[in-house]
Amino acid sequence: MRINLTSVFVDDQEKALRFYTDVLGFAKKHDVPLGGEDRWLTVVSPEDPDGTELLLEPNKHPAVKPYTTALVEDGIPATAFAVDDVRAEFGRLSELGVRFTQEPVEMGPVTTAVLDDTCGNLIQIMQSA
């Protein structure tokens, strides 16, 4: 068994696609219309295009907004992405205007930082020692 797909709820799929591709550097994998304005929209790491996909899922279910709002208010990331160098990514993303809620912090064998994805989520980036 392995993880094939995971998701984050987003308030605007097009805005999320731009952020996750143009800013974070993921590549669009699938973009399938679902009727209306919703799409099956996934991104992947360009380093592993056949790897785990991240679904940019519309946040339209009534339970989603209270859930994501509570996570953000409590400073809890919706998910985490591995990077080779958290401090370098922090610098690169900060220069692009990304807002961080946590600057790089060493936590034992990992270094983490937390950013706002502009679509309703906090995202942790992490580097293993």
Description:
The protein has 129 residues and is α/β, with parallel strands linked by helices. 24% of the residues lie in helices and 40% in strands. Strand 3 and strand 4 form a beta hairpin. The protein is globular and about 45 Å long.
Keywords:
129 residues, alpha/beta, 40% strand, globular
- Give the integer mean of the pLDDT values: 97
Q: What is the count of DSSP helices, taking H or I runs of 4+ residues?
A: 3
Shape descriptor reads globular
Strand tally is 8
Describe the oligomeric state of these chains in a short phrase: single chain
The radius of gyration over CA amounts to: 15 Å
Helix-and-strand structural type? alpha/beta
Helical content band: 10-25%
Through-space gap between termini: 26 Å
Largest sheet: 4 strands, mixed
Brief account:
The protein has 129 residues and is α/β, with parallel strands linked by helices. The chain has three helices and eight strands, in the order βαβββαβαβββ.
Explain the layout of strands and helices.
Layout: E1 5-10, H1 13-23, E2 27-33, E3 39-44, E4 53-58, H2 64-73, E5 79-82, H3 86-95, E6 100-107, E7 110-116, E8 122-128
Parallel strand pairs: 1-4, 5-8
Antiparallel strand pairs: 2-3, 3-4, 6-7, 7-8
